[in-house]
Structure formats: C-alpha cells, structure tokens
Amino acid sequence: MHLDTGVEATLGVASLIGMFFGGLICGPLTDRIGRKPMYTLDLLVLVVASALSVFASEAWQLILLRFIIGAAIAADYPIATALLSEWLPRKRRAGMFSAVIIIWYIGASLAYLVGYLINEFMGSDGWRWMLGSGAILALIVFLLRIGTPESPRWLVGAGRVDEARRVIENSLHVRVTAAELTGSLPRTVESRGNVLDLFRGIYLRRMLFIIIFFTCAIIPLFALLTFGPQLLGSLGMGSGNLTNLGTAIINLVFALGCVPAMKLLETIGRRKTIIWSFGLMVLPLIALGLWTNAPGPFIVGFFCLYALFSGGPSILEWAYPNELFPTRIRAAAVGVAVALTRFGAAVGTFLVPVSLVTLGTSATMFIGAAITFIGFLACIAWAEETRSRSLEETGAIEGVPPTPTTASKVGSAP
Q1: Under CATH, which number does the domain 5-385 receive?
Q2: Residue ranges of domains in the chain
Q3: Which pTM does this prediction carry?
Q4: Over the stretch 135-155, which tens digit does the pLDDT of each residue have?
C-alpha cells in the first residue's frame, strides 16, 4: 500500500488501542454475565474481522479491522485466564499458565515464519493472507471451545448453586451438595463485584503493581513483536524478508525462557522470580545500546538473552491478576490490567519507529532499559508471594481470612 511511517505506526498500534477498550469493557462484563458466553463470542468477532482484512483496499479499513481484532483479543485475556485459573488446582496453576504462555510465544514465532514463507512465495499481496489466516485459526479454536463448562466459582457467586453442583459432577465426576458448595460463606462476600473495587484499599496497590510491571514488561516486548524486523535491520542484522527469520528465532527463545521460570515459580516463588527476571532483563538492553554495531550473532544473542530472562514476568502477567483478586472481580482485574497496560504499550510501540529515526537505535535501547528498570523497582516494592496458596487466600483482603468451601477446592486442591 506504500504507507508512510506515520500510517505504518498507526497500523502497529491499532490493535493495542482496541485491546484497551476490549479489556476495559469485556473484563467487568465477564464478571457480570459469566465466563462461558463471552468465551465463544469473542472468537466469532475475531473470525469475521480477520476474514474481512483480506479484502481491505484502504489503510483506514485495515486500521479499523486491527482495532476490532485487538478488542476481541483483549476480551479473551480476562475470559480465558479467569476460567482457567478457577478450574486449576493450586499446585498446577503456575505450570499450566506457563504452558499457555509458551504456546503463545511459539505461535508468535510461527507467525513470523509463516510471514517469511508467504512473502517468499506470494509476493506483494502476501500480507492479505497473513492477516486472513487468523480467521482460519480462530474458527478452529471456536469449534474446540464448544461445550466448555462454566466456572463453578462464578456460578456460586451468582447464586446458581445447583447449576454449579451439576457442572462439577459432570466435569470432575465428584458429587457435591449445595451446602458443601456454599458452606458458611455469606452471600455479601461473593456478591457481584464493582469495577471500582479494584481501586480501593489493598486492591488499589495490587492494581498499581500489576499495571506498572505489566507495562514495563510489554513495552519492549510489543515493540520487538511489532517492529522486530525493523529493529534488527537498524542494527545491521540483515534486511528485507530475512529479518522475519531473525525475529522468529527471538520469539522462540521467549518460549524457552518460560521453561526454567515454570520451575522457579514453584520452587523459589513468584516474588523472587519476578525480581531477578526484571533485573537481568535490563542488562542485554544496555548492551544493545552500548554496542549497536556489534556483529549479527551478538545482536541476536542479546535479544535472545532478554527473551530468556523474561520468562517469569511473561507467566505472571497472566497469573498474578488472577491470583491477587477474588472471583467477583477477577475478570475485571485482568481486563482493566490488559486495557491500561496496552495503552502504555500502544504509546511505546507507536514511538518505536519514530525513535529509531529521530533518536537512533542506541537511545531507543537505553529507553527500553530504563522502562524495564522501573518494572524492577516496582517488583521490589510490591511483588507478593502467592506460591502454594489457594485463590481464596491470595485474593482475600489482608486480615480477613477466607471461608473454605467446596467451590474453592475446585481451583485450589493439591
């Protein structure tokens, strides 16, 4: 389409801006109407918008469709992660969230590999098939999601105890009574929450922590994912379609970085893992800023080190919001976190191509290092330890012990 730098940058951030609105709206909505209805609706929106991208003829059409796709993706963060966390046993939460994020990075790596192949064999119109491929994948996932049960935790909180009992019996083949599900839990405690609850008391501190560390982790990450080929090209690491291969390799290392983090999160704990991860993530960005004319293997190596060290924050971006808030506002917490952090990521990603042109590669890398260091300080100040604790314990307000129920055991049993 022969786009200028400004339009290209707008295309890069359109989906992130869509994620801002999608997370802000769909997170609280998921707490209000349930996980299951939203779990399939967002995939349908993704299918339609991705399919329409194939036929876009103007830049504004692509920008609009990328915005819609971003909103659908952001909706899936609170829906899918809340549903997953509320079904998982406590000892498997970190491992399963690790598996999800590993698959996410493998998908990101494969996206660049597919992009490389499409560019090689389909020429200048290959980008249409890149964007359209999302419709095929989303349709497959939509079909796989049919029949997914609702969260028993959410059902109990909504007063649908008998339905929660049937879901547990059908899914886990465990018979429970209504009394076991509700226990002595007062209805007011698990009443439907208000999004404003996220910004009161200890939950305000937790939201600030999640927003700061989340933003500081994803600004460099999204810049690399969106403009990886341009970044590698500016550092002298190849040009044209070849840079897609380099970016694919780096994204694969992001997945590998989650493997040791998966073990560390359950051995030394969440707090130590995220602090050390952020501290180490600063170093390769500083090295790239100091040595912009390094040989190609060193440049890829520095990027790979950053990717390797980022495993802990990558997993906890999804795990922490689900662990630190109760069921009544869990999806809202994830949605608001996604929304606010994507706004920062959108601003950062928009400025990456501008910074490369106006400030240069070295200054861009130093800015990334400074942002990461802010995340390091936030983790030292506010990171909490949630290892081996139930969702009732981690989501409770300090000083108010949770009431154990059979419903809580669905996602917290050994």
Answers
A1: 1.20.1250.20
A2: 5-385
A3: 0.71
A4: 988 899 889 888 888 888 888
